[in-house]
Predict the 3D structure of the following.
Amino acid sequence: MSTVSRNMFKGAAVAAALALTLTGCASGPSTPTVTPIDYKACMVSDAGGFKDASFNEEAYNGLKEAVATLGVQEAKVQSPETATQTDYVNGIQAMVDEGCNMIVTVGFNLASATRDAAKAHPEINFALIDSSLSNDDYSPLSLPNVKPIQYDTAQAAFLAGYLAAATSKSGKVSTYGGMLFPSVTIFMDGFKQGVDYYNSEKGASVSVLGATGSDSSKWSATGDFSDQTKGKTLTESFFSQGADIVLPVAGPVGIGSGQATLDHSGTYVIGVDSDWYNIPAHAAYKKNILTSIEKKMASAVLAVIKSGVDKTFMGGDANQYVGTLSNGGVMIAPEHDVMYPAGVQAELDAIAAKIKDGSLVVKSIYQK
Amino acid sequence: MKNNRIVREILNTSASTTVFAVLASFIVGGVLIAVANQDVQTAVGYFFNRPGDTFAALWNAVSGAYAAMFRGAIYNYNAHDFANGISPITDTLAFATPITLAGLGLAVAFRSGLFNIGANGQIIFGAMLSGWVAIYVQAPVYVLFPLAVLAGLVGGAIWGGLVGLLKATTGANEVIVTIMFNYIAVYLLGYLLKTPVLKAPQSINPVSLPVQNDAKFPLLFGSDYRLHAGFFVMLAAVAFVWWLLNRSTIGYQFRALGHNPDASKVAGINIGMTYILVMAISGALSGLAGASQILGTERVLTTGVAASYGIDAITVALLGRSKPLGVLAAGILFGALRAGAVTMQANQNVPSEIVLVVQSLIVLFIAAPPLVRAMFRLPKVVKA
């Protein structure tokens, strides 16, 4: 070894020692407060991953809460960004091998993998988010150890649509999806119905860009759930056509929409899945978040894990959970920085009450 | 032709450099596993109180992670019985089948001096055509099954051959064209899955009907294992590519083109025709990868049918130095990484991204042979 490199090595060693001295002086760990119990709750994400600031993350928060409050053990598999059916099967199998008592699978993409695993392992309980089971020919299927957890998000989106129509100065609002799956278009459809309801109540003519016509397969979409640039570009094209509010139903792609609101004053974005105002990933434009359409997945996940721990788990389609405004499974976020026009909050409360008591029906696959 | 030079340089590295590149990636991966580990982070926080904790945590993190990867990819020594124990290696081979097939396709193109980035689109086209036949064509099994496999091959060959045609007739750069063709294939599949052409009528989601049982690759070890007869198709393809590149006249022309297009032209090789042929064969192999996906493991068409195999195949072809056996070994390694990542994550809580990092590091190291030689003090190989 030459002198130079030896000196460099010494320097590096000193630096490393220094770093250790600076960080290494805390005392040892203390014991956790909740008594751990012998129950393993597990989760398999879809391609979005647990840090998508949206759908999977909200579901995972429920598992984290179960670990913190119930003392259950956890294990999880984050499916690769390019997950195939094989990867989902593999992920669930890994959870079975880990000896999980309850496996929560997040997203309709995992439906058939969940079905096959549930048939092979009747002793394990499953909860499937955003889908129910079906056979290979798509006839409905109900298994006693699988509880479908679904959300009638159209009801909350209806409120957001009404609010957007009331807030818009230009008389144009907009929406788009990542890909036009039913769990995506249900947001856009409810939003559209909310705008229409505002129009008929107030004699207004607010239009919805990105969701023209009744055929939801022709609505606007970016094509994936990952490319934020596409979300920004599409949003800017909506804004240049005169829209001043956008509802992105595309997970992290919506971050691009939020960024677009920073370049166009007086424009707002509506969050999905969780209250974006409180999520760090959306902090840069939180003053432009009009509201968020929330799917309270964390509480449903916590509840289903608790039912497993208490041995009160009930599976099958008869016991499926559908989140609605009435049971608090879906809702819109409270007013934050963007002030609602005078009187709108009261109108929203009145509409929510009507939806809850059934006198106003928001159409969706759950409410025909 | 800058990218040709880089490819040729990578293909010329010695086998030992490649092996050490993989080794180096696993070592760096181990460092990252240790850094990302919660217990290690906690233990370092009180290093001077109990330094032993840090070393114990380091050892547990890294050995635990790689042991879990072994259990998920090769043999699960914690399983109750042998039958369950060998299931991981069959998973690895099932994952390796499409990756190797696509890798072979790219190897043919790379050896011919064509930088084909289009495996993704070619896999999708193969899967689409093969899937359509396997779902809708009514025929007895001895017609349906070969027809479905052939459809995959033809689908990929058309999608690849078109690129060759464009290059031969207009001089279009194959890198750009194949990338664009990937987008076309992805969005075409997405569109067709929303129309009655491919979408299952009863489904509300963009998913096709499952392929008919007669069209499926038979499972090799029963329904408990995912390994299917497509594995033998892959092995046959390895042999075919070896014969093509080393023993056939066409293959000789391919390689001549790869070494020096101008000299090949002077020597009387029809350059345009060779471009088309190279890309068609390259695409056909990727198309077979698509067929093995839809007829072997996936059974339904979804937008994600090609996974990341089109991109993995580039690494696999480069890592295998575009030699058939090398590609096979690299393909099995990548299959093992994909299968093992899940167990590593489920059992040891290692972020699945670590595996992607290891894969990327492999590329980095094989692209920088001097770095690997310096790390392991290997002598420089002088090639004639």
